[in-house]
Amino acid sequence: MGWFGDTVDSIKSIQIRHALSQAVSLGLIVTSALIIWKGLMLMTGSESPVVVVLSESMEPGFARGDILFLHMSKDPIRAGEIVVFNVDGRIIPIVHRVIKVHERKDTGEDYVLTKGDNNSDDDRILYAPGQRWLQKHHIMGRAAGFLPYVGWVTIIMTEKPIIKYIIIGALGLLVITSKD
């Protein structure tokens, strides 16, 4: 085959190694993000340690696009706390304030009623049909802090999927073309 054939084989081998290296790098980035997320879940005790406020229902306290950091604790939930909850039959969690806590004497379990600060009525209309109160298993976390407006990136990518695909494509292209 000679010198030229060996050179072509060597270039192909280098290209394959480079492609494998890029794939491993991308895999490490994704794996690192998942490990960080799982670590945050363990540290905060919340199944979703970070959420984005998606509506204006909590203004002026929290604006659409704010990122909330959540935690869970064994302490009883109190009126005035801001919680993130999931309701049966709904996919997207809701960020609202606890306005009333009811403790059942027979079970010792707390039931909570929530309301958005910017809403005129409580959240019973948002709960599952026939549901009047939230129980502990509905609560995903309690607000521990926030970053204003940083979540707009998520909102824009959700509302305009083409932007999400452009960003993912650009990041993929960056990974593929980087020279390490």
TrEMBL record:
Catalytic reaction annotation: Cleavage of hydrophobic, N-terminal signal or leader sequences from secreted and periplasmic proteins
Record carries keyword tRNA processing: no
Record-linked InterPro entries: LexA/Signal_pep-like_sf, Peptidase_S24_S26A/B/C, Peptidase_S26B
Record has Transmembrane as a keyword: yes
Protein name: Signal peptidase complex catalytic subunit SEC11
Membrane-spanning intervals of the chain: 20-37, 139-156, 162-178
Organism per entry: Rosa chinensis
Lineage: Eukaryota, Viridiplantae, Streptophyta, Embryophyta, Tracheophyta
Top-level taxon in the UniProt lineage: Eukaryota
Coiled-coil ranges per UniProt: none
Peptidase S24/S26A/S26B/S26C domain ranges (all copies): 38-106
Record-linked PANTHER family: SIGNAL PEPTIDASE COMPLEX CATALYTIC SUBUNIT SEC11
NCBIfam families named in the record: sigpep_I_arch (TIGR02228)
One term under GO cellular component: signal peptidase complex
SUPFAM superfamilies found in the cross-reference section: LexA/Signal peptidase (SSF51306)
Family per record: Belongs to the peptidase S26B family.
A Pfam family this chain is assigned to: Peptidase_S24
Free-text function comment from the UniProt entry: Catalytic component of the signal peptidase complex (SPC) which catalyzes the cleavage of N-terminal signal sequences from nascent proteins as they are translocated into the lumen of the endoplasmic reticulum. Specifically cleaves N-terminal signal peptides that contain a hydrophobic alpha-helix (h-region) shorter than 18-20 amino acids.
Keywords, ordered alphabetically: Hydrolase, Membrane, Protease, Signal-anchor, Transmembrane, Transmembrane helix
GO MF term (any one): signal peptidase activity
Gene Ontology BP, a term: signal peptide processing
Topology of the protein relative to the lipid bilayer: Single-pass type II membrane protein
EC numbers for this chain: 3.4.21.89
Cellular location(s): Endoplasmic reticulum membrane
